[in-house]
Amino acid sequence: MERSTFGLRKGAWTEEEDLLLRQYVEKYGEGKWYQIPLRAGLNRCRKSCRMRWLNYLKPNIKRGGFAADEVDLIIRLHKLLGNRWSLIARRLPGRTANDVKNFWNTHMCKKEISHIKETKEKAKDIVKVNVIKPRPQTCSKNFIWLNEKPTAIARFEPKDNVSNISPTLMPSNSGSEWWKSLLDDKEGDERATCTVSGLDKYPNKWWKSLLDDKEGDERATCTVSGLDKYPNKDLWGEKIVLEAEVWNNFDDEDLSCLADQTVFDMSFWDFLNA
DNA sequence: AATATCTTCAACCGCCAGGCA
DNA sequence: GTGCCTGGCGGTTGAAGATAT
Predict the structure, then answer these.
(1) Residues 54-73 of A, Cβ under 7 A from nucleic strand B
(2) Greater pLDDT, A186 or A45
(3) What is the pLDDT of residue A121?
């Protein structure tokens, strides 16, 4: 039996310890982890107890390999959120942040590395194309643009060699309402409309917000009509790929929290208005 | 069969943010 | 404003099992 310098047990949990922890949570509920060692009679630190409960003992935890759909989700969420395992795990019922992290580190890391190598090899043979991606930046909560939550995020595929155009985000009171309608087809400017098809192929409804009709996924597409009515249309190209729906429309607390702290580069909007 | 190497994943550790006195 | 405490998170470790030699 391993022991720390303060006499607390470390290492693998025994069945008796699991039982004591279960009994504690049944009696007192989750939380108050600092009280557990005393109340439950466990010679473990609070963090160890919390970790054991959340990652192993909690009911409804799904064990075993990840389904193809889950893997798909993880890849897309990781693309959007990075290593924010707890946020990713909340989108996967029964999976814990630790599970997702382990899965990524053991399976996806290798695939990603080989994919990068493959891509680099292919890149030698093809003409370079500018791919415009959102560029998240972390801002303080007092940042003026965060007085309202972000409205929309999109990735533009520019015509010809128009480069350095970044996707944009804007508060809805900016007077630039056409942008809203372009993406969510709601009230306001009606010059352009955006329709998405193929959503029924996504088992998780919320997932429609992360549509990406780039390579490898042909399930859903987004087409925009009416672009010819915009003065700067020549700069955009004819295709807009919907990368994320309106943040405010998320019922989901996790992603709306994300909107509180993530903002996307504004230069595209500045560029259009120049 | 024995040993070495690789893979998996439970568990630990350090850091950070928020709440409170 | 400061310090303390707690919960929560992501990075990392290492034991155990699987696979290769």
Answers:
(1) 55-56, 63
(2) A45
(3) 54
> 3-class DSSP state for residue A81?
helix
The whole-angstrom separation of Cα A66 and Cα A114 is 20
Question: What residues does A72 pair with on adjacent strands?
Answer: none
A68-123: CATH class: mainly alpha
Question: Among residues A103, A77, A31, A96, which one has the least CA distance to residue A258?
Answer: A77
Token readout for A5 is: 């310098």
Strand B–CB A13 distance below 7 A:
yes
Q: Where are the domains of chain A?
A: 2-57, 68-123, 136-273
In this structure, what token pair is assigned to residue A64?
Answer: 């075993």
Domains A2-57 and A68-123 share a fold: yes
CA distance A187 to A180: 8
Overall fold of domain A2-57: Arc Repressor Mutant, subunit A (1.10.10)
Nucleotide closest to residue A82 (CA–C1'): C10
Q: What element of type H or E holds A21?
A: helix A15-28
- Confidence band of A105 (pLDDT split at 50, 70, 90): confident
Chain-centroid distance, C-alpha A32: 29
Amino acid at A4: S
Task: Evaluate if the CB of A115 falls below 7 Å from strand B.
Answer: no
Distance CA A8, CA A80 (A): 40
